[in-house]
Amino acid sequence: MTHQMQNHMGDELTEAEAELVHCYRHLARTLEMYDDELSPFEARNGLKALAALWQVMNGLDMDPGQVYHLGA
Amino acid sequence: MNDTPYWNPRHETMPRDQLDALQTRKLRNLVEWTDAQVPWQSKRLRDSGVTADQIESLADLRRIPLMTRDDWMQGQLESPPYGPILAASPESAIRYHMTSGTTGKTPIRVLDSMKDWEWIAEMWCYGLWGFGVRPQDVLFVAFGYATFIGFWGLHYAGEKMGCLVLPGGAMATDARVKTLVEMGATVVASTPTYALRMAQEAKALGIDLVDGPVKRLILSGEPAGSIPATKKLIEEMWGAKAADTAGMTELGTIMVFECAEQPGGTHIIEDHYIEEVLDPESGEPVGYDELGERVVTSFGRGFIPVLRYRTRDLVIRVPGTTCPCGRTFDIYDGGIRGRVDDMKLVRGTNVYPRAVEAIVREHAEIDEFQIHLYTAEGIRDEIEVRVEIPDPKVDAARMLADIEKELADSHEGLRFEVTQAEAGSLPRFELKAKRLLDERTVIGTEGERRAQA
Questions:
Q1: Residue B369 above 70 pLDDT?
Q2: Domain map of chain A by residue range?
Q3: Which of B101, B133, B345, B362 could disulfide-pair with B128, CB 3.0 to 4.6 Å?
Q4: Is residue B248 within 8 Å of residue B97, measured between CB atoms?
Q5: Model confidence at B443, in pLDDT bands (50, 70, 90)?
Q6: Are B264 and B317 a contacting pair, CB within 8 Å?
Q7: Strand locations in B89-240, DSSP E?
């Protein structure tokens, strides 16, 4: 399934790249939905990881938008 | 991890038509974000009839109004401390920085978030990786680590890449030199001027840098990193390859870097910026191989959207294909060639400090120099170049005469007075060097008389 992922340039992503995209999306969703439940070390380290994975999304032309509302 | 010369192979080798499409899409996203989040920018865009849905090609960029430093400063004065430029709440920021203030003006103040700082480091990664820096390197950063943004982003890029980073802040020059040698630094980051200063200090300490561990120098902060004579001198004194980079506080990071092929210029990071080159007078675009002013649009820093910012930097753009590295990113031949306002008119002849430096640095025996403009007999522009020649064995008189002739030959016969300054008497610089001292009471360029002290 991950082989079919395309970016905004119409390029197909590799399986490894698609896994990183999934990782980012899952993390962003987790931070957005469960922010109130996360302890400081979970929330802040999660944001730090999100900020780094955002660069991968951006570099893969997946147009991640902005994440200031999440705190990153 | 792949062994590749590119930090982002997909983008750095992207064909030009795809790069145009990528930039157009990112421009549309940037305009949409700016329009929604920054009322001050939104008004400027809408007054010019620009909305995101109208951005269909890069040609639409020209419809966006130009922004100047004065615009930015005026906004800061009216809405201190940051001005009406923020696209997110200051509570989302994790860092504050400001311009170095070398222009003597009020500094520009900027904020960035966690994600923006990752991006700032990301831009430096393009430069470090592209010049051959790898995780096994030991990176010494000869920098003051204060509110000037300088090499902060390079520091984090080094960490991101897995290098061992040695922060060289709050150290005297001799301590820096000893530390970087003792710790086996393989890469050193500094301004070009300070790279020379450290090399002079090493010589005074009896430390042989040429046979030492340093293999690469990352230069930034001054145009000298792309002045061939200065660069050659630095490379010879260190026994290392030197790469030029350039950035600005207004962007938070670098926008150009020199790759390992050292093409005599710097690649533009075109997947994160649109760089235009315009005639500084008319505002019209100039073509490849023509001197003009850089105007930058940045996709990366969402906290402070930068759209068509006039930098006052003078550049000559050439196609990326002029470099054999395989990148499609275009190049600023000779790096940043100076500032629009750097040029001095002396008795009708244009004088650029960079051009003077290019000649002075051909003489490796010169440690430091200064360009001194003054008014003679209350009416006449004079230009003096003061040089330090510390080695008493050098035939200084002959060298001064040679430099006078070389400067005159390259400036339409303009008479320069080249004098010898006492060794160690001229100012030394750690950050941006200011080697031009204009003490004219009558300003030839403006025909105005300065107020007498």
A1: yes
A2: 13-70
A3: B133
A4: no
A5: low
A6: no
A7: 93-98, 109-113, 138-141, 164-167, 187-190, 216-219
Question: Between A60, A61, A68, which is nearest B92 by CB?
Answer: A68
Q: Answer whether B115 touches A (CB < 8 Å).
A: yes
At B129, list the tokens.
């990786």
ipTM of the complex model: 0.95
Structure tokens at A5: 């992922």
For chain B, domain boundaries: 1-340, 344-449
Characterize the bridge pairing of strands B349-351 and B369-376.
Answer: unpaired
pLDDT per position as a tens digit, B188-228: 999 999 999 999 999 999 999 999 999 999 999 888 899 99
Chain A residue with CA closest to B1: the answer is A16
**Architecture of the CATH domain B344-449:** 2-Layer Sandwich (3.30)
Q: Using a CB-CB distance cutoff of 8 angstroms, which residues of chain A are in contact with residue B113?
A: 51, 68, 72
Distance from CA of A12 to the nearest CA of B (A): 12
CB contacts of A24 in chain B (<8 Å) are none
User: Which fold would CATH assign to domain B1-340?
Assistant: Rossmann fold (3.40.50)
- Per-residue pLDDT of B242-270, as tens digits, reads 999 999 999 999 999 999 999 999 999 99
Please report residues of B whose CB lies closer than 8 A to that of A50: 115
